[in-house]
């Protein structure tokens, strides 16, 4: 049935397809296992032959095991190679260990076969012979063979149809110290052994390597953070990550040549562990916040001394190798102190980070001791090294610490922000309140000034007019018409006062217009015509209500004087501007009057005019002749 | 007599219409009432139609036949004369409303003009002046002071057409018929000259128009103020959701 047609969606078709799919999946799942099934033999016994010599014999291409000097004896695997006893000459001989295994179980099997040695440890080299022919020899320096990845996996038959060898011969050359060792091994079906080796390699080597690299990457990130933010935690993290990577170096070596000499390599990895422990101590201190300056200084001194005494010197190279276990002992002592102190303080502090770190350090410590013991062959040498996993845990803890610090920092920022917001709001309301107070104070001041102004004005004008009118009426010397005249004057006063409250906004003409509007009817009533000859003048910015009223009163007085004291029939009003002054001229065609005499006769109006002019920084020029009276008010354009 | 105040229209010839000017008065001040009543009684061309001394009476009097001129005081014992002005503007559209004020201060006057008044009467005027004002108002003139001119100029400058789009067709349009109640350049010129202190006849000379034209300008400006004020109120109400659109 073609896919896509409707029939393909019928239930029975779908069921059939599902069955097929399931079968395929099962085959895929079981396939590798099924194919992997082949004979694999675990060899835990071998025959051993031991040679001691001042130096290693050169590696031969073919070896006849029967011709080797000494006797073969059966041994159990894994096997630790005893170090040779010191001879009288002082220098201990090197050891060559031969292991012989018969592969009888493999005879007759078809297909490829492999040989898989779980681990070998020696400051030296290993070589494998199949039926007397050299099949494999290790490369690189003797030193890193202590550490490199452990397994040895090689094919036994060279082609698929050739039979596997009958005998395997293993040659292990080792320096007198430290003790060498060799594990048990497997031989048999290639696929099974390759898979087995791959699994073990992944667990023991690839996984820790990846974590170590990731840790280093995180460390570099922390360094970048430190460069920008200078937080000690970030620097600690970077240092620990870097030292960890250095320390883990010897777990990750391949068969390549080292980029440093063996001696420096040992020094580096050893010191990396030392300083890593020390910095972890400082970091824990930072986390739990309980400073131990004296202890820390002692530790720092110890670490420096340790670094100096472990410095490599070419002449003592072999004996330095011999010192390695003791250097480990010193390290373990230091780490013990750090662990105990760290645990104690962390669990007495409230820092979860410190607790986690001290705990993982303790685990590291325990695993380190275990690995050290394994190096000393106290425990089974086939088992896994544990420190790589401790390092992974450490990495995990560091990631958690970083995460918590990051999240904590975010929370702090949020808190800060909300705090800022709250304080900003407070500030705002405070500001608003103080502004309100200020505004009220200003208002009060304005009101008080206004009151003063009006009081003064009432006192000079309206008040005195009313009082004098009252006196006159009381004296009975005035007729109704005259009283009405006085009252009209009062009302005019009042109107001008009210007008002055309206802001004229620097417009002098508007002020004059208002005056004309108010006084015009009275002048007209008295038969005086007005010639309005005003022209535009610059604005007077200082023209507030107070000053406006002064000007109004001065000019009002001028008009009143003309009305009262002259027989004028015409008044001209002119404006002009020159030399920073604005002038208002009021000229009448009346007979004029004697100014001095008017002043002498208690000319209150003239005095008031002068006083008001002074108050606004203006000048009044009064000129009276038979032709008429001219009053000029000179107002400054600008006032300070 | 040659009057020198800026009352546009003060120099108008007395109304030549044969019929009398019918005046209604809403005023609680007995003395001023008497002054008006006496003055009107002495003039054959003006007749007092009704007399009210409270806001309620004033509103009531609007139900009778419309007067030509309504005189209203703002400070009535039972409320504001503004209400009477507003109602008169609606019910007596042909009537010219005049507000009676002691000082002619622009706060009171502008408020009244916005409510629909066309002029104001200073209470301390001579009786013959008052009659003159009534006649002048009836013939289309409107008094204006420099400060009021200034205020109006400022108002139209601040929001020349803010309320114009919201002006509904139901609102009685300004006499110009324009729904956009902005000042024309001539109207603005008149107002500016008034703020400089020139009288109506001086302005007529300066602008080379008749005095009557100047008077109609002022009356029209007042109408625009009234229209704008009402449009604004409606716009505001609509804006606040009081009035359904």
Architecture overview:
- The complex is a heterodimer of chains A (640) and B (245).
- Chain A is an alpha+beta fold.
- Chain A is built from 13 helices and 18 strands.
- Chain A has a 6-stranded antiparallel sheet with strand order 3-2-5-11-8-9, with no helix packed on it. A 5-stranded mixed sheet of chain A has the order 14-15-16-18-17, covered by helices on one side. In chain A, strands 1-13-6-10 form a 4-stranded antiparallel sheet.
- In chain A, a hairpin with a 2-residue loop joins strand 15 and strand 16.
- Chain A has 4 domains: 6-36; 40-200, Immunoglobulin-like (Sandwich); 208-408; 506-636, Histidine kinase-like ATPase, C-terminal domain (Heat Shock Protein 90), CATH 3.30.565.10.
- In chain B, helix 1 crosses helix 5 (127-138) and helix 4 (106-115) packs across helix 6 (146-158).
- Chain B has a 5-stranded parallel sheet, sandwiched between helices. A two-stranded antiparallel sheet of chain B has the order 4-5.
- Chain B is of the alpha/beta class.
- Chain B folds into 2 domains: 21-138, 3-Layer(aba) Sandwich (Rossmann fold); 146-239, Arc Repressor Mutant, subunit A (Orthogonal Bundle), CATH 1.10.10.
- In chain B, helix 4 (106-115) links the parallel strand 6 and strand 7 (119-122).
- Chain B is globular, with a radius of gyration of 18 Å.
- The interface between A and B is medium-sized, with 27 and 25 residues.
